[in-house]
Design brief:
There is one protein chain. This protein is α+β, with helices and mostly antiparallel strands. The protein folds into three domains: 24-72 and 83-368, Distorted Sandwich (Beta-galactosidase, Chain A, domain 5); 378-453, Immunoglobulin-like; 476-641, Tetratricopeptide repeat domain (Serine Threonine Protein Phosphatase 5, Tetratricopeptide repeat, Alpha Horseshoe). It contains 13 helices and 33 strands. The longest helix is centred in the first third of the chain and has 24 residues, at 3-26. A hairpin with a 2-residue loop joins β7 and β8.
Length: 648
């Protein structure tokens, strides 16, 4: 056979394989079902009738939520709604009546859990409102001082079969304390070995509020578990920074069993620019992975119960026979900052801004037969083991793969192969390495599917992790930042006092003046609020934050023209543009000027296509103008981004 015949045969083989491969993929099954299942449950009491405002300062910021404080060690059989999403590779269960959390997830070829599945619901006093049950993935948005307030409550949900063949269970609800709304689309594709959680969180109010968003996943805790969290340091809740993965005492903290010292552990891993993390159980040659764009979720946290008796008792308190667990979390901040984290460190609090909307996409998947992991993506998980003479490659795909794997060093290609894989069909290869070639290797799979380099410095970040000592903690700017952190934690009185202390140092501090105006509005002290906002505008008539809160207060007073004028100046800022436009649209609805309400609602959507309030105002404007076709189409668009929207 000459070389041309050989190449023709390879091409023909590839084409025939492609036809066969496509047939295999297209024949896959997918389903979504809702059932009533009996689960052994250790219930909690009716709520404490005393309002949270009267109990203590920690729970009072969650008013009007009530607190639950009664528990039992007697299990009962209780019926629960259980939603199951399943394809040929994985099965995922969801509990709409327990915070909408993912109950667990199983890889079907092995029967192994890649999300810890607790077969009982053993509610214990762990959450901020009290009851909390371990296992699965819980959804946390807003102020989180110990799990979201809805974590053990029923939430809204809807099941969908999507046009692309995937299925979804969409859960969500209203956070009563902030009035913000959250949604999580738990979506399973028909032909992939991962599921996705696609989050939407939005603030339909003109005020700042607490900002925190974490997906909290549980995994089995066993001595053979190793954490794969790329980074150089870990951050504490208070902003303190320590080495990772090897601590100052020489312990490799990424090995679960090496954490058998001290109390419970929180490791917010930091220092690299990764999109992924994972864990691997070496005894069973099985693991779990998570991927999210760094721009969506830069925070990556491990939480471990103490390996001493003080932590071990919680195994029996939270489950019957499923064993101890750990938590791996993905969030929008580098750490879950304690109230004073930002006072002396760079790890401050953040705000959920007026009419702000945020989306986040995360992938969860099993890993098998790789022996560990060095890189992961929605396409799959890669592991490399190198020596002087050879490189052992293992790749566990999450998706159908018909593409090349290339190993290179500099400009030289050391190995290349076209691979054809179904999801969870593990590829393993051992290739010889030239002398000295084990350094600075690069492995790529396909065009943008997965890429890894052995150069550890390539993804290292240079972000400061420590605030230099000797700064003036009594300066106006430092006091302002402290007040910002207090406000974002809903410590309104402390924040107000600290903003005023800032203004004693610097009477024209415009940002402090605007926040005092906003806090005055919260207290319905409208005249004082206008005075503080006016003090900003005396020095800068274009200040966007001052104009915005000035407009909010004038609107509350019924001065619609003055409010619209102020919002019309606030639109000069991108930060307030969509928010100010939607406020103007609302003013025109009040004046029954529906044509201009339509114009400004559209303007708001031009600058934030997830501005849910703008969709609602626009639909109202259409209906009032008898534009029923446009109203219907707009509602369809709204339901595309918010399938649980009550207005729609």
């Amino acid at each position: 056979m000459n070389i041309f015949e050989h190449k023709a045969l390879l091409v023909l083989s590839f084409i025939l394989y492609g036809f066969f491969f496509s047939e295999v993929v297209s024949g896959q099954n997918i389903s979504i079902t809702e059932e009533i299942k009996t689960i052994k449950t250790y219930p909690y009491s009716d709520p404490n009738p005393i309002p949270s405002l009267a109990l203590n300062s920690q729970v009072s910021v969650f008013y009007p939520y009530f607190i639950f404080d009664g528990y039992t060690d007697k299990g009962i059989l209780k019926e629960w709604k259980v939603v199951t999403l399943e394809n040929d590779y994985i099965a995922v269960t969801v509990l709409p009546e327990v915070g909408g959390k993912v109950m667990g997830a199983i890889e079907k070829s092995t029967g192994e859990e890649f999300i810890y599945l607790n077969h009982v619901l053993k509610f214990r006093a762990i959450g901020i409102r009290g009851p909390w049950a371990s296992g699965g993935i819980e959804h946390n948005f807003g102020l989180d001082l110990g799990h979201a307030p809805w974590t053990s409550s029923d939430v809204d949900y809807v099941l969908k079969e999507n046009p692309d063949g995937s299925v979804s269970c969409i859960v969500g609800g209203l956070d009563l304390a902030s009035r913000t709304q959250w949604r999580v689309n738990i979506q399973l594709p028909k032909d992939k070995a991962y599921f996705e959680t696609r989050s939407l969180w939005y603030n339909p109010t003109p005020l700042h509020d607490a900002y925190l968003s974490w997906e909290n996943a549980a995994y089995k805790a066993t001595d053979d578990l190793q954490f794969y969290f790329p980074g150089t340091h870990h951050i504490g809740h208070g902003g303190d920074v320590s080495p990772w993965p090897v601590d100052k005492e020489g312990r490799n903290l990424s090995i679960y069993k090496n954490n058998n010292f001290g109390d419970n552990k929180s490791y917010h891993v930091f220092g690299n620019y990764p999109n992924w993390y994972g864990g691997y159980y070496h005894d069973t040659d099985f693991g779990t992975g998570h991927w999210a764009p760094y721009s969506d979720a830069p925070g990556k946290k491990i939480w471990i119960w103490s390996l001493a008796r003080s932590g071990a008792i919680w195994e029996g308190l939270l489950t019957d026979t499923d064993g101890q667990y750990i938590e791996a979390q993905s969030g929008v901040k580098f750490n879950q900052a304690s109230p004073q984290s930002g006072f002396d460190t760079p790890f401050n609090q953040l705000f959920m801004r007026p009419f702000y909307s945020e989306t986040k996409s995360e992938y969860w998947f099993p890993v098998k037969e790789t022996g560990g992991m060095v890189e992961a993506s929605p396409a799959g998980t890669l592991n490399l083991i190198s020596s002087k003479e050879k490189l052992d490659i293992s790749f566990c795909p999450n998706i159908p793969i018909q593409d090349s794997i290339i190993v290179s060093r500099g400009q030289s290609t050391l190995y290349e192969e076209l691979i054809h894989l179904n999801p969870m069909q593990v590829f393993q290869k051992s290739i010889p390495l030239p002398e000295g070639a084990a350094q600075d290797l690069k492995v790529t799979i396909g065009q943008g599917l997965l890429s890894y380099t052995t150069n550890k410095t390539e993804n290292r970040i240079a972000r400061p992790a420590v605030t230099p000592p000797g700064q003036d903690n009594n300066s106006a700017e430092h006091l302002f930042r402290q007040a910002e952190d207090m406000y974002s934690m809903r410590s309104y009185n402390d924040a107000l006092r600290t903003y005023l202390s800032c203004l004693e140092k610097e009477p024209t501090h415009s940002r402090a003046l605007s926040k005092v105006a906003e806090l005055s509005y919260r207290k319905a002290q409208f005249s004082e609020g206008l005075t503080y906002a006016g003090r900003v505008l005396e020095n800068n008539t274009y200040d966007p934050e001052a104009n915005f809160i000035y407009g909010v207060i004038q609107s509350a007073l019924g001065n619609l023209t003055l409010a619209e004028e102020a919002f019309s100046v606030a639109v000069r800022s991108m930060e307030y543009r969509s928010a100010a436009y939607v406020q103007i649209a609302g003013l025109h609805l009040q004046k029954q000027d529906f044509r201009n309400a339509e114009v400004y609602a559209k303007n708001a959507l031009d600058y934030n296509r997830y501005n849910v309030t703008a969709y609602e105002f626009l639909t109202t404007a259409y209906r009032k103008q008898n534009k029923l076709l446009e109203a219907g189409k707009n509602l369809e668009s709204l339901l595309e981004i918010d399938p649980l929207n009550h207005y729609a």
